[in-house]
Amino acid sequence: MSSTYLGMPALPVFGQGNLNAVESFPLAAKRELGNSQLRANLGHATHTIRDKRLRVVGELPDWEDLRNAGSATKQAVMARLPELLEQFEQNFTARGGIIHWARDAAEANEIVRDLIGEQGADEVVKVKSMATQEIGLNEYLEEQGIAAFETDLAELIVQLDHDKPSHILVPAIHKNRTQIRDIFLREMPGVDPELTDSPAKLAEAARSHLRRKFLSAKVAISGANFAIADAGTLAVVESEGNGRMCLTLPETLITVMGVEKLLPSWRDLEVFMQLLPRSSTGERMNPYTSLWTGVTEGDGPRNVHLVLLDNGRSAALADEMGRSALHCIRCSACMNVCPVYERTGGHAYGSTYPGPIGAILSPLMTGITSEENNSLPYASSLCGACYDACPVKINIPEILVHLRAEDVDSKRGTKKLPSQMDLLMKGASWAFSSGKHLGLLEKGLPLGRIAAGRKKKITKLPGIAGGWTRSRDVPAPPSESFRGWWAKDHRDPAAGAELPDSPNTDSTNTGEQA
Amino acid sequence: MRIALFATCIVDAMYPRTARATVAILERLGHEVVFPAGQACCGQMHVNSGYLPEAVPVVRNHIEAFESQDYDVAVAPSGSCVASVKHQHPMVARSCGDAALEARAEAVGAKTYELSALLTDVLGITDAAAQLGSWFPHNVTYHPSCHGMRLLRLGDRQLNLLQSVGGITVQPLPQADQCCGFGGTFSLKNADVSTAMLEDKTANIKATGAELCSGGDASCLLHIGGGLSREGSSVTTLHLADILASTRENPVSVTGDILVGGKVAR
Ligand code: SF4
Prior knowledge:
The complex is a heterodimer of chains A (514) and B (266). Chain A is α/β, with parallel strands linked by helices and 514 residues long. Chain A has 23 helices and twelve strands. Chain A has helices at 25-33, 36-58, 63-79, 81-94, 105-118, 130-135, 137-143, 153-160, 177-187, 199-216, 242-248, 266-280, 313-318, 333-337, 339-344, 355-366, 385-389, 396-411, 420-431, 435-442, 445-452, 466-469, 482-489; strands spanning 98-102, 123-126, 147-150, 219-222, 226-228, 233-238, 252-258, 262-263, 288-292, 303-309, 457-458, 474-475. Chain A is globular and about 90 Å long. Mean pLDDT of chain A is 88; it is low at 1-9 and 501-514. In chain B, 51% of the residues lie in helices and 11% in strands. The termini of chain B are far apart. Chain B is globular. Mean pLDDT of chain B is 93; it is low at 256-266. The interface between A and B is large, with 89 and 94 residues. Bound molecules: iron/sulfur cluster (SF4).
C-alpha cells in the first residue's frame, strides 16, 4: 500500500458494506414495534443507562466546558485532517507500525485477509470494532475460510446467535439473561449443560470459552477509539479486559479505524477520557484503557498494522452542513435518550450505526440518493434530546433537517407525479404565504364542523393524513378563526378582549364553577 | 407596551380561543395588543419536512407582516413556532441567498417571545393569581413540549406560572420530558412510532389522575388530546394561556367541542 496517499481522494467515494438499510425505516420500525419483548428489554435498558448518565454528568461542574472543548477539538481535527493523518502516519511508521489505506469496505477487507494470510492463520480474535462491523469483515473472512471470534461479551452473544448488534455499546441490549443462557447452551462448544442464567455463571462460561481462543490465536483484530497524531499512538477503551488480551497476546495485531478518529496530541485525550465513559456507560472512568505505539522490543505483538478506512467519510467531510457527524465518538448517549430508538431498537435503522447518529451518519456516508437510507433522516420527531446528550455537541436535529432537504431536492423533477407530501407542501406554501390566503381557507372551517358531525370529532381522514387518524381523533374545528373574530370584534382597540366564554362553539359555560 | 400577537396557524384555525385568551391576559395587564393582519404561519412544517424553497415565501410573509406593524415585542402562545421564527427563519433566508432577508429575520426573531417567557422575563409575572387574577379550580398535569424545553430553554417558566394559578392542583407528570411523538409530519411519515410514543404519553397522563393536561404548544396538545379522545378517556388537553386567562368572574369553560376527549368533570 502506498504511504504517499493522504486518505483524501479527489472525488469523495461513498461508503459500502453494512451502511445501507434493506428496507425503509417506517417498514422496519413497524415490524420491530411488534416485538413486545424487545420493546420491554430496550425500554428498561435505555432508561437505566439514561438515569446513570445524568447522575454522573451532573457531578461535573465543568461538563458544558468539557463538551465545548471536545467539540472544538473535533472541529479543528476535521479542518486539518489530511495533515494530521500524514503526521500520524510518520510517527506510527517510525515506531515500527505499518499503515494501509483503504478507500472502501472491499479494499479494507482484502487488506485484512492478506495480512492474516501472511501469518498462515485461519482463526483470529477480535475486540469490538464498529469499523469492522461497518465493512462486514466477519462475514467476508468467513467466506474466505477464516474464523473471527468476537471477545467482547455482548458482541460474542450476538455472534453466537447469528444476530446483528442493535446498539453500538450494548450490542445485546435487546436480549435478556435467559435468552443468553439458551444461546450459550446451543452454540458454545463444550459448555456445561447445567448452565444457569445467573450473571456469574454466564460470565464464567464465556471466560473459559474465550481463554482458549486467546491462547491459541496468532492474529488479533481491533478497532480504535482514538489515534494521537503527534505520538503515533492508538487507544482502545473497554470494560472487560478481553480487549487487552487481544491487544497483547497474539503475534500480529491488525487495527481497523475510520480516518476521523484522530486527535492532534496527547493533551487532547484528557477531555475525551472524561466525556466518553460518562456519556456511554454512565461511569466516571472506564475500566480498561489500552494505548500502544508501534512495536516494542520483547513486549506485545511483533507485527502491528493499521488499516485507515475512508468508506464514505470523505463524502461526509465534503458536506459542510453534515460533516460534524464525523465528530462522533460512538458513546451511544444519543440512542439511549432517543424516543424513536427506544421503541424500535437498532435493527430498524439497517446500518451498523443506529439511533440518531445513525440516521445522519449512514446517509451521509452512502449519499442521500442511496436506496432506503433516504428514509433515515425522517426517523426522528426532532425532539432534540440527542443534541442535549451528545458529549461533542453534534447538532443532530439540524443535520436531520439538512438531509431531509437534500432528499426532497434530489427527487425534484425526477418523478412523473408529485407525491402527496409534495402536493401538501406546495398547497400549504401558497396558503401560508399570505394572511389573505389563509383567511380565505379558514372560511371553510364550518365545513370541517359538518364533517365532524354530532360527536364533534373527526375520526378518519383521507390520504397521508390517514396516518394521523389511525390512532388520534381530530377535534371539530371552530366555526370562526381567530383572524375572523379579530376583524369583526377587535377593530376598535378600546373595546378590549373579553375572555371568550363560548367563543365559537355551542359549549355551555354557565359560570357555575366560580 | 404595544405587543404584536403571532397567533400561529394552528391556534388561529383550530384554537382561536387560545389566541383570544392571550389577548385577554395582555390587555388585563394594561398592554395594547395588535394583530399584524398579513401573518399566516412560521413555516416550520416546510423546513422540518425538507421543503426549503417552499418555506421561503412563508418566511418572507411572516417577516413582512411583522415589519409592517409598529410594536415593542411580539408574542406567540407556542414554543415551537417561536423557536422557528428565532432559529429557522434566518437559516431559510440564507438558503435562498438573501442576506438582507436574513438580517430582517434576525431582527424580527429577536423581538419575538413565547408567552411564558414574555410574562416571566419581560412583564415580571411571578404570581398568576395575584397579578393576573387567574383562577382555575381543576386538577391538572403539565407536559413541557420539546421545542420550548430544548430550543428555547424555557425551563420551569410555564410550570411556575401554572402552579401560581388560584385554585389549581398540579400533578407531576411521570417522564414529562419525553416527546409526545407529534413532530409535525413525523406523525404522518412514521405514524406507527409516533403512536407508540403517544401511547406512553397518554398512559403517563392518565396515571396522574388529573382531569386535563396543560402545556404551551397547541400542536402537541392537539396530538395528545387526539390520542386521549381515541382511547375514550375523559382526560383532555387545554393550553396554558386558556388557564391563565380564566378568572373567578369569567372561568374558562372546560366543556365544548374545541377540546378533544370529552368533558372535564368538576
Ligand atoms: S452522536 Fe454524540 S451522543 Fe451520539 S454516539 Fe456520537 S458522540 Fe455519542
